[in-house]
Each structure stands twice: as C-alpha cells, then as structure tokens.
Amino acid sequence: MSILFTISSLLATSIFGVSYFGHLRKAVANANADQYFITHAFYNAFFHPLAKFKGARLWGMSRIPFINAMLSGTLPFRVKSLHDEYGSIVRVAPDELSFTDPRAWKDIYLNKSFIRPKIWGSRPPGVEAHNVISAPVADHARFRKAFQPAFSEKATRNYEKTVQHFSNTLISKLKEYTVKDGGETAVVDLVQWLNFTTFDIIGDLGWGSDFGCLRDTQYHPWIAVVLHFKAVLMAVSVKYYPWLEAFLMSITPASALADLQKTLATTHTKVKDRLAHEPEHADIMSHVIEHNEKFPDSCLSQEEIEANSMAVVVAGSETLTTALTGAVTYLLRDPKVFKTLVEENRANFSSEDQISAASTALLPYLTAVLHETLRLCPPLPDGLRRQVPKGGAVICGHVILEGMTVSVPCWGTFRSSSNFASPDVFLPQRWLNEHSPQFELDNKAAFQPFSTGPHNCIGQPLAWMEMRLILSKLIWNFDINAPKGITVADWTTQKIYWTWEKSPLEVELKRAR
C-alpha cells in the first residue's frame, strides 16, 4: 500500500492552491504559476457563478480544504458544521454546493438528467467494464434493468433461507464462545462477527458461494482489499488534478496493484464458476442470467456482470455491518431503550423458530430502532454527488448553472435541527409517535438513507430483512452488555472514508436461555 502514501504526500505538497478550473501545466508554461493560483483563487472567491452562496471563504477559493477533510476522514462532519454556521445551502468547493433542505432530494435525485460526476465514478486500473456507479446513463439503465428483479420483494422472500442459515451460524459460533473454557460469557468484537455474517450472506447470494468467514472465523483476502475505502478516496482526490493523476500512474509500479489484480481475479473466478452451474437455492445471479436470456439485445457481458456483482457484494455487506453495529452501539449507551427492545422481542417469540422475515417486520419498536440508527449512523454519511445537467436547473428555488456539482449529505441532513427535534439524541419513539408534540416538527421527508430516484439503493428489501433478522436473533439468544470497565465509545469518534471506519465494538455476551 506504499503507493497510497506516495499519493497522499504528493497531494499535500504539490497541489496546494490549485484551482479546479485550471491546470498546473498551463501555469508553468506561462511561467506565472503564483499569479495563476492567486488569480483563480480570487476569481473563485468573488466572481465564480457560485460565489453568491454562503460558505467558508477558503472552501470557495480552492478544492484543497475539501480534499484535506476527505482524506482526514472528517468531510461529513466538516460539511455539517458549515451547514450549522451558514444554513441549508452551503458552498463546499469552488464548483460544488451542499443542501440539507429536504426539497433537494426531489430536485436533484428524482431528475434523471442529474448524473454522477465522472470523477466520482471512476473504475479500478485495468478494468474496462462499467458498473452501476461508473456507468453512463444508458448503461446504468441497462444494469438496473438486469439487477432490479433480483431485489424485488418477491425475490427477496426467496433469499430468507440463506439469510437464516448464516444468521443461525453466527449465533452457533457465538454460543461456542460463551461456553469456552467452562464459562458462561464471552467478550467478542461484534464488528468483526457481523462483517463475517454479512459478507457470507451476500457472497452466497451474489456468487453462489460464501467467503467462508464464519466457518474460518477470519476475513477472506478479497475482503481485506475491497475495504480499503481510504485508497478509493485518494484516487478520487487525484482525479481532480489530471496532471497529477497522469504523473502518478506513470511512476506506479505494477507490484503496487498486485493486491487489486488478485481481487479482480477472484471476482472473475467466482462469477465464472457461478455461471457454469445452477445453485440449489435462489440467488441474485439467476435473475441476471434470466435477463440475458430474455433480452439478448441488452444483455450484460461477463465483464459487466463481474463489475456489477462486485459492487453489489461490497454495498450489500459493509453498509449492513454499519447499521447493525451502530444500533448495538446506541442501544448499549441507552439501557432503557435496549430494555424496551428486548422486552418486545421476547414477548413476541416463544421460540427462535418463530423469528422470521415476516414476524420481525411486524415489530414496531425494532423497526423504529433501526430507523433511528440509520438516521444517526447512515451507512453512507457523505453526499451522493450529481452534476447539474445542460441548461442548468432549479434546486430549492435557486437557479444553478450546468456543470456544477450538488448533493444532499446524509450526515448533515439527518442531524440538522431544522429537520429533526433533538437531532443528536437516539430517540426511536420519534418513528412511533408521529403526533407527539416533541416530534411534530420532524420533517421525515429529509430522511432518505437509501437515497431516492433512479439511482437509489435497489437492495432495500434485502437490507431490511437482514437487519431485522440478525438483530432479533442476537437479542433473543444473548444478554448483551458492555464489558466491565469499558465505556462504549461515542459513534461519532470514528473516521469516515466514504463509509465508516469502524472501531472494534467489544461486547459481553451471556446466553439468555
């Protein structure tokens, strides 16, 4: 990973003061670099089309403060602080605006003309095929058409057997630890165990074979590579400066990409093996295969299947681990809420066999806890950036010129006092007592943890099934507490690199029965 440190160092020492609207090579060619930087910073601050919007002056002058916050793992926190100071519309870079006004969800994400900026949709080196993140409009629609049926409510019901199997394996493994060495309790890192579970589930559903994480009680090498989200953000940062990207790629040795190549090779093998045989149970790939048979004119190539299934596996695992560990973190910090959830769980089930996708969906307090968790611990806390289409657009009543970047940041929006009462407090009851005076001003339209529109998360039904089943089985089987002498850390002490860089969550488990 030494190349990452090289990139980081070069970013810090070589691009300070560079405007998004210019390239260093032009400045050097003119032998007026200093004047070039100053002129563009001055232009950005006072004459740029977005100069009329409020925000920190330095953020409006250069992309550097934005990149610095992003690479330090604090960007969503900093953006929220800017909204707290300047209001619901904030300029966070020379050509970028952030919105916490709930109307922006509709104005930006329901409009098909808003597409992801190319900088935020890049592909790994050596990968030619697009996925749903990097794809142009036409290919994105084609990919969604192929994968959407796999995540329908009907299709998801057929995945319950798989989710139940790995959830039960998780419980069995944890029970083994509680009786190890003749004891009654065990202290485990729940982040690790939940990651094992969610990766095994989505691996089995996506590729017809799991990663063996629960079986081997360790991460598969493939997972270790794809979880380097900071590396992804470093690559994004470099793309803001094409001259630097070209230079770095020219000096990057092939050995620096060896781990990535192994990961891509593993993906290729898993997809090839899955396409060569039919699994014993329903999975996601069967729907993609059916799509290719029905629509040969718009079928996905194997390379496209590999690229998209890789995105599905990452999105369908790490985000769920975030939600579940976030829920346990807040529950442990609020024993009263935890007690209410446990009582609901154990009052509704007389045996573990009764815990199913259908039965857990009927538990209002469980659903409220998960909603509040997604509000306070959104799996993707940053904004999903979109580029204003040709001709410009009106967002929250403001005319924004074409080419500008806009987004709604989940962290800043969900924790805004203009959208929610007591925004930083874990209050599941806000999702139950809609007519309570305490929450009557809550603007639920602001809450879109899965985004909205044609680019929203297609895996919501599966995500809800997994969250409900896994959390219900955990609290049915175990009394969960913080280990003696350990205070559960505040969730917000963790860094954010696209998603959360989760610290270990050590919990004490004691068998409830």
UniProtKB/TrEMBL annotation:
PROSITE patterns: CYTOCHROME_P450. GO terms for molecular function: heme binding; iron ion binding; monooxygenase activity; oxidoreductase activity, acting on paired donors, with incorporation or reduction of molecular oxygen. The keyword Oxidoreductase applies. Keywords: Heme, Iron, Metal-binding, Monooxygenase, Oxidoreductase, Signal. SUPFAM superfamilies: Cytochrome P450. Pfam families: p450. Residues 1-17 form the signal peptide. Heme binds at residue 457. Its cofactor is heme. Belongs to the cytochrome P450 family. PANTHER family: CYTOCHROME P450, CYTOCHROME P450 MONOOXYGENASE ASQL-RELATED. This is Cytochrome P450 monooxygenase. It comes from Lachnellula hyalina. The gene is aclL_3.
